[in-house]
Amino acid sequence: MIFINIISSMNKIFTTREQAMIIWFAITFIFCMKNKSIRNSLKDIVELIIKLLLKIPGMVMITYIIILGCTLNKIGYLQSTIIKDYIFWSIFGLIPIINTIVSKYKTITVLEILREVVKFSIVPLFIINTYTMSLLSELIIIPISVMCTMGIVMCDSKEEYKAAKNVFNFVIIAIFIVMIYVAIKGFIINVNDLKDITFWEGIAIDIVCIIGYIPLIVYFRWYLLYEQIGMLIGFRSKLNKCVIYLITLKNCLFIRKKLVCILENINEFYRIENWRDLDSRIKQVLDKVYNVA
């Protein structure tokens, strides 16, 4: 009786897709805990994640997610039925985008950032879709979609993996088409859901998260550029990082071309004596390379 009540409660709170994810997570967790070497590796990974989250960008990310969530809750949008969708989006939508920015912070443009946001938003949309398939079908599709998504992220790191990336993209698109078909079919059968406000809140969560997380995503791009400049120039001089940031901001503002120029000519910044010297050298580098000062 208790087991039946638990199943009934899960069906009310989670879709079959979300239930399948929980089941796969539980299976993976149990497997990892039984294997000593994997358990030790998992422990190291958890410790590494905690260390990363305790650094400035990690703390900014967590703070922003909490503030955005509290704001959405305050205005009456993020209610109990939507909180789990917001959490899913933060994990499976936001983190892959940030990972891409970290690996391409020198070259990625605003247009590419927006493209990444739209591309990875397919994943959370897939997870939180109201109209899902049977639990058995979801148990099969979930690991396939996860492996393909991970494959896309890894293939982005090297050009020679482009062919493999195309295959992963094809599979993701095929899964997305199936998802759309099931969603439309489920919507037609349950057309009266249009009268329920919860339906519209669930549909809007993807758009809300995309728009809401854009400032955080852009922040990571600028942070990585300025952090690298501060670290590399700081290593070559005795200047305080804050001074380096301010002088760099004065000359470059948020122009990626200028910031990358400094990084590519970092050897021009040995033995900086003071902030005036740094200011002068930045101007010289920018004049020499891009003829802008």
Describe this structure in words.
- The protein is mainly alpha-helical and about 290 residues long.
- The chain folds into two domains: about 1-220, no CATH class; about 235-290.
- About 80% of the residues lie in helices and about 0% in strands.
- It has twelve helices and no strands.
- Helix 9 packs parallel to helix 11 (about 255-265).
- The longest helix is centred in the last third of the chain and has 40 residues, at about 195-235.
- The protein is elongated, with a radius of gyration of 23 Å.
- It starts with a helix and ends with a helix.
- The mean pLDDT is about 80.
- Keywords: Membrane, Transmembrane, Transmembrane helix.
Give the SSE map.
Elements: H1 2-13, H2 16-34, H3 36-53, H4 56-74, H5 80-103, H6 110-128, H7 135-155, H8 162-189, H9 197-236, H10 241-252, H11 256-264, H12 275-290
Helix pairs in contact: 2-7, 4-9, 5-6, 5-9, 6-9, 7-8, 9-10, 9-11, 10-12
Name the structural class.
mainly alpha
Q: Describe the largest sheet.
A: none
Mean pLDDT: 81
Radius of gyration: 23 Å
Keywords: Membrane, Transmembrane, Transmembrane helix
Transmembrane segments: 20-36, 48-67, 87-105, 139-155, 167-191, 203-226
